Amino acid sequence: MMPEEVKVWGITVPVSPTRRRKWPDALRAKAVRKILAGAGIRETAEEIGTNKSLVALWVKKADTSGKSPAFVEFVAPAVQRLAELPHEYGHETASSTSCRISIGTAAIEIPPGYPADHLEEVLRAVRAAQ
Known about the structure:
alpha+beta, 4 strands
C-alpha cells in the first residue's frame, strides 16, 4: 500500500493513488534556490526522488532574473501604411525611417519594408541567445 503523503526536506508531499506526487510550491522554490546556489539539477532531483527534467523545468519557470526579455508579439505594419504616415520628423519621410531594437548589448536596426517573417526569426534567435 502506497502512503498518501511523504516528507521531503521536511515538507509534506501528497501522493495520489497512482503514485504521482503533487510537489508543493515551497519545495519547488527550495529546490530552485538550491540549484541557483550551485547544486546540480541531477543531484537535486535524485535527492528529492523525481525526474531531473521536472526539476529543470522548475528552474526554467522560476527564472526571474530579467536577463531574457519577455516575448512580445510583433505585427509588422503594412508597407502601404508607412507611405501614408505624416512627416513628423522634419525632412525625413516615413519611408526613410527605421526601427531600432536594443536587447541587452545587441542592437537591431530594421529598415522599412523588412520582411516580418524574417524579423520574427531574428528576434527569436536573439532571445534564445540571451
